[in-house]
Every structure is written in C-alpha cells, then in structure tokens.
Amino acid sequence: MIEKFLRYSPTRDLIFVLGAGASNPDGVPLQKELLPMILSDEIDEIKNSEIGKIVNEFLIDNFEFNKELNQYPQLEAVFGFIDYFIEQNESLNAKYTFEKIRDIKEYLIKLIHYVVNLRTDKSSPYYHKFWNLITEHTNNVSIITLNYDTLLEQAFDFIFKKKNGFIDYSIPLMNYEKLPQLKEYNFWINTREPLLVDENSNPHSYKILKLHGSLNWKYCNCCNQILLTPWDRKIDLNKGKFLGYTYPDNIEYEFSCPIDGTDFQTLIMPPSFSKQLNNPILIQLFSEAAREIRSTKKIVFIGYSLSDADVHIKALLKKAILNDVELLVINHRPKETMELNYKSLSKNVKFIYSSFENMISDEKIISQIFISVS
C-alpha cells in the first residue's frame, strides 16, 4: 500500500446538473407532489405525529385546497408566506406567533425530508447505469444536483469497491476530524488528503455538489459543521430528532452533535420565492459550483426545468457560464417557458426530449452527451 494524491484537472470535460426528473423514476416525489403527500391521510407516521398535526393545522388555517380535485397551493407560496413573517420578525396572530411560525417552517422542512426519504432507502438501477456511462467515457466529470435524496451516492457503491472511486462533497465534514468524540464517524475518506491505496491502483475522485442540501447531512448551527451519516436519514416526527441505529444490533438512538451536544438541524433548502443563502455550508457549495462551471467545456442538464423560482440557480449559471460552453438540456417533454429560460443563459444550447430512464439506454443520446469528450 502506498499514499497517492488525487488532483483535479484544471478543466472539466463535462458537468451534469440533475433536477427532480432524474430521481423521479425511482419514486422520489416531484415538488408538486410533496404537499399532497404531507396532507394525505395515507401516511400514518405523519398523520399521527406531533409535527404532522401542527403543520396540517397551519395549512388548513391559512390555505385553501381541494384534495378530491388534487388542487393544492404551490409549495413556494407556502414557504414564501412563512418567510414573510420570519423576515419581518412579525407574528401572524395570537395563535401563530413569530416563534411558532419559525418552528412551523422547520417542521415543514422535516416533513419534506421524511417523505423524500420514504423513496430513498433502496438501490437505483437508473443511477447505477448513469455511473456506468460516466466511468466508461471519462473520469473528468463533476455533478451538481438540486435533489435532496441520496440515490445518486448509494448507486456509487460499486465504483468505490471495484474501481477505487471516491465521492468529494467539497465541504469540510466533521467526519474528517480526528477528535476522540468523532471516532465512530471518521470512516469517510477525505480525497483532499493523501489516500492509502494499492500501488497499481488508479483512484479517481468525483465532485458531487448538492446545492440544495442532502438528507444525509446533519447540520450543527453551533459549530457550523456537517456530520455525514450515509445510511442514517430518519427523523422522529414527534420530537423532531434525527435517528441513528447501532451496528450490528440495530438499536435506535437520537443524534446530537458529538462536539457540543447541540440538536442537529436539517440542511435542505426548501422551495421558496425567498431563498436563504447565508448558511456557511451553502456559501461554500455555491462558490465551488461557480468554479466548476467556469472550468467546463459542456454542461448537461437532466430533468431540471430551471423554473422562475430558482432565480439563485439562474444567477449562478448566468455569472459562471463562459461564451464557448455548450449546454445540452435533457427533459421529458417540451415546454416553451423552459426553453426560453435556458436560452437566456446561452445561445449555444440544444434540447433533447427524453426521460432519464430512457436517456441512459439510448445510444444516440449518449453519443451526443459524450461526443466532445476526448
């Protein structure tokens, strides 16, 4: 065994930007499906939980919806309404004080975390094929994903085991620290440090930049750090606590920060017309994404509509995309507003209409994705 340093090329062959359409084939709900699931009577864990009852009551008190006709308010509108009172430091009324509204926002985020995670505890054949395609054509690729789920990383397992591939989240994880209280968590390999590998191996690192956060990130707002728990993503909807499980006896316990004992918070950016981007982890991720975008020859967008609510993503792309960069947009169906949004980023853009699950098996589309890879 010897130590090897991994270095990224100064330019990237490809960057993939993944939206909800990439995870939806595995059953991960689209944004428009989240509120109906939260308000549904079919998920007993939500209906019977303390957090579920509080959020449902708030939504019933302040929004009109029709379950029979499947008519619900936009999630951006719900969060926008909540954020207004938080930003103004105002109460809505005697029942919904400023403090209560702030709690309700965190509860709603945890419910979103819960329903997305319902469809995440499995392997994804689609992301497995996706990683196969990448490793067959180039190792010089980065992925920006706007999805909270961890299906992309779970499908990476075979690359780690068979091809010495490593994931780089590009943020300073608590897992990298060698403090005694973190000894159970520092198994995750820091690819920015020398790696101990077989002499004849050729390890590669892939950046996965999760700009809207992740289900397996636990954020401590005291030490401002992330603990990565790859397999533990569950939440107790009565206490609002993250749950972990011992191995191999599978005993449940509540997570808190191993350094200072603070209760962990979610780190997923909710869909809102008013985006809060002042979290130090998100600031670092957006800076890293900008550097990646400026370094690439081609950007492939998959299952992402670049909606008007994602003005922060449009601003990032508009600032960082260079004039000669090729954009390829792969989406399941034509939509004029989506095309106009992408054309506002660059005139050098092409559209392919295909679902993610069909794309990864379509040789013609695959050749168009990787045609410029040397």
Keywords:
single chain, 36% helix, 15 strands, 2 domains, Rossmann fold, 374 residues, seven-stranded parallel beta sheet, three-stranded antiparallel beta sheet, alpha/beta
Question: Can you describe this structure?
Answer:
With 374 residues, the protein is of the alpha/beta class. It has 2 domains: 2-27 and 123-220 and 268-370, Rossmann fold (3-Layer(aba) Sandwich), CATH 3.40.50.1220; 31-118. The protein is 36% helix and 19% strand. It is built from 14 helices and 15 strands. It has helices spanning 20-23, 31-39, 44-47, 50-62, 75-88, 98-118, 125-137, 151-154, 157-163, 280-294, 311-320, 336-343, 356-359, 363-370; strands spanning 2-4, 14-18, 141-145, 165-168, 195-197, 204-210, 213-220, 225-228, 234-236, 241-245, 252-254, 265-268, 298-302, 326-331, 349-353. Strands 4-6-3-2-13-14-15 form a 7-stranded parallel sheet, with helices on both faces. Strands 8-7-12 form a 3-stranded antiparallel sheet, covered by helices on one side. Strand 14, helix 12 (336-343) and strand 15 form a beta-alpha-beta unit. Helix 4 packs across helix 6 (98-118), helix 5 packs antiparallel against helix 6 and helix 10 crosses helix 11. The longest helix has 21 residues, at 98-118. The two termini are 31 Å apart. InterPro entries: DHS-like_NAD/FAD-binding_dom (IPR029035). This is SIR2 family protein.
